[in-house]
Design a protein that fits this description.
heterodimer; A: about 280 residues; mainly alpha; MetI-like fold; 14 helices; about 70% helix; B: about 350 residues; Rossmann fold; six-stranded mixed sheet; elongated
């Protein structure tokens, strides 16, 4: 920090006050959720709502994790993790390979295939959800991990991103590898893949969160509560009719649902920096 | 160590033929420089020898063996690219060792070969570094090291010095020359820089628009250019070309001046005179209306037009001259033996 220009005076204090206020405003709902997850049900429904954590932290979280409302939250977290990781790794593997094919090989219809992939970018999941459901149902993949993962695994966005990245890699590199005797897949593994590390890490974060936050698709194809994912599971916790919602457990579940994406972002951030600085092997 | 033989090599991209039949015999250990302006097909020719481009028709032999259909790795060549093409995520050692690893060379031998190459190129202290931590000249050396460790039959250089600054280029040029002498490996070197061509080549191949204009030793090309193109491409500043009409050994230029040529000819011709062969002579037949001069220190270039015409003329005077001496009309003469005559229509050299 010594290299930075030091600015002093009222302006600095005002700036910081403004920033702190902004953080507080954004953080407040999360704080409320946390408070609600540490008190008892009667305390929540009796106005005014408490603003300081209660003493039910362990009880509420244990109840959420072990029993939940329909399904233990631990089970839903595991389902979500399998789905999000499956989608993230699957998308990365498929899009890396398809971008490799499109950029480095001349085959008939290469441009056509690229544009076909690109076109699917314009079709959101919702548009093709009925035919997709039909296909998945006929394959007998309802209430299964493959059913959760496969329909979401192809990614035009990631293919496009890797295509753009591969196109910035000088042709001479591929030629040098060819002169060195590397076959195409060897070039892919030894040179292209390590060079894409930072892109893969960045994409992993985005895709993990994308997979984690899937709502509509799991809602459609998982009727068995033991296959519920966490994001749709929260919704399933709301009672229908006149039942009383168990707000402390729901809030605890919400906070638990947020945890993995936050962890992924924080951990991968370190990997970004290592990828960018990259001092040792 | 090997010979390289190109027999009527042609290359077409779709309907466009870009190389119109090249014949070339490269002797074992010879340093051949392929030189020409951008777009003349010199890089394409080299890439065909490397196996990175297919040969449309013709035959390519390395060490007597037909290699048209072989993959680059099976041709036992090594190539140095213009932008070095080092693998950015690998250390210098790994960059040099990569080809050997693919060839499943034993570990101990890889280490030994890389160590030898690193010693030869003074890269020993950089082996653990990544390419981005090296200077341009060092990267260039790593690229050469990668070529050397493979102990190839042929080195191929594709404009290897054009990304370096002027001073480094001179130094690396000398290093490449010394290295090639030392290793004695047959080399093909592509460049657009005539100084590199003149200094490095045992023989140079002057190319223009997909055709070979001349193949010869550098001084042979300089002294006896086979075509107007070769004459103007080699030499700096470029050769003066003046239209004229020949009758025997005398050529009448456009402004009526008469100069003596080395060979007999008849009818319209083009006279070529190198700027450095124009000798100041108050009684000389060639008049130069000066427009500007460029003092370079070791010589001075005088630009202008030939008296009474608008054809450009450049003279190169040895040593330092002040601009005040170089005003108005200057007169020059030229020794008959230093003139070149070209056919006005075909641009081919006339006479021996």
């Amino acid at each position: 920090m010594s290299g930075m220009v030091e600015k002093r005076g009222v302006g600095l204090w005002l700036t910081h006050a403004g920033l702190i206020l902004g953080v507080l405003v954004i953080f407040f709902p999360i704080w409320l959720a946390f408070v609600a997850s540490t008190v008892t049900q009667p305390e929540i429904v009796r106005p005014p709502m408490p603003l300081l954590p209660g003493d039910q932290f362990f009880e509420n979280y244990r109840e959420a994790l072990v029993s939940g409302v329909n399904t233990p939250v631990a089970r839903m977290l595991a389902n979500s993790a399998v789905m999000a990781l499956g989608i993230a790794f699957g998308k990365i593997a498929i899009s890396l390979l398809s971008a490799f094919a499109i950029v480095y090989f001349r085959f008939p219809g290469r441009q056509l295939f690229f544009w076909l992939i690109f076109l699917t970018l314009m079709l959101p999941v919702e548009v093709r959800i009925v035919p997709t459901y039909e296909v998945v149902a006929r394959f007998g993949m309802l209430n299964s991990y493959p059913g959760l993962i496969f329909p979401l695994i192809a990614s035009a966005t990631a293919t496009f991103l890797f295509r753009q990245f591969f196109m910035t890699v000088p042709d001479e590199l591929a030629e040098a590898a060819r002169v060195d005797g590397a076959r195409p897949m060897r070039f892919f593994w030894d040179i292209l893949l390590p060079m894409s590390r930072t892109n893969i890490a960045a994409l992993f974060v985005i895709l993990f969160i994308y997979g984690w936050n899937q709502y509509l698709w799991p809602l459609l194809i998982t009727t068995d509560p033991s296959m519920n994912t966490i994001v749709m599971g929260i919704k399933q916790m709301f009672p229908s009719g006149d039942d009383v919602a168990d707000w402390p457990v729901i809030m605890a579940t919400s906070l638990l649902a947020m945890l993995p994406p936050v962890l992924v972002v924080i951990l991968m951030q370190k990997l970004f920096i290592r990828g960018l600085v990259d001092t040792e092997k | 160590m090997a010979t390289v033989t190109l027999t009527n090599i042609r290359k077409s991209f779709g309907p466009n033929e870009v190389i119109h039949g090249v014949d070339l015999d490269v002797a074992n250990g010879e340093f051949i420089v392929i030189v020409g302006p951008s777009g003349c097909g010199k890089s394409t020719l080299l890439r065909m020898v490397a196996g990175l481009e297919t040969v449309t028709t013709g035959e390519l032999r390395i060490g007597g063996e037909r290699v048209n259909e072989k993959e680059p790795m099976d041709r036992n060549i090594a190539m140095v690219f213009q932008n070095y093409a080092l693998y950015p995520h690998m250390s210098v050692f790994d960059n040099m060792a990569y080809g050997l690893r693919i060839a499943k060379t034993p570990k101990a031998e890889i280490a030994e070969r890389v160590a030898n190459a690193a010693k030869l190129l003074q890269l020993e202290t950089f082996l653990a570094r990544k390419p981005r931590e090296l200077s341009g000249g060092q990267r260039q050396r790593v690229a050469m090291g990668r070529a050397i460790v493979r102990e190839p039959d042929v080195f191929l250089f594709d404009e290897p010095l054009s990304n370096l600054d002027a001073k480094l280029r001179v130094q690396m040029r000398l290093e490449i020359k010394a290295l090639q002498r030392k290793l004695g490996v047959t080399s093909l070197y592509v460049t657009h820089d005539q100084v590199e061509a003149m200094t490095l080549a045992d023989r140079m191949v002057v190319m223009n628009a997909g055709d070979v204009e001349q193949i010869g030793a550098p001084l042979e090309v300089y002294e006896r250019p086979a075509s107007l193109f070769a004459a103007q491409f080699i030499g700096s500043p470029s050769m003066n070309v003046l239209r004229g009409t020949a009758a025997g050994a005398l050529v009448t230029l456009a402004n009526g001046a008469v100069i003596e040529a080395a060979v007999d000819a008849k009818g319209p011709v083009i006279v070529g005179i190198r700027p450095e062969h124009l000798a100041p002579d108050p009684q000389g037949p060639i008049a130069l209306d000066t427009t500007m001069s460029e003092p370079l220190g070791w010589n001075t270039l005088v630009h202008g037009t030939m008296g009474g015409t608008d054809s450009e003329l450049v003279a190169s005077l040895a040593g330092v001259h002040r601009e005040s001496e170089l005003q108005g009309t200057m007169r020059f003469s030229v020794a008959a033996s230093l003139t070149h005559l070209f056919d006005a229509a075909s641009g081919r050299r006339l006479g021996g």
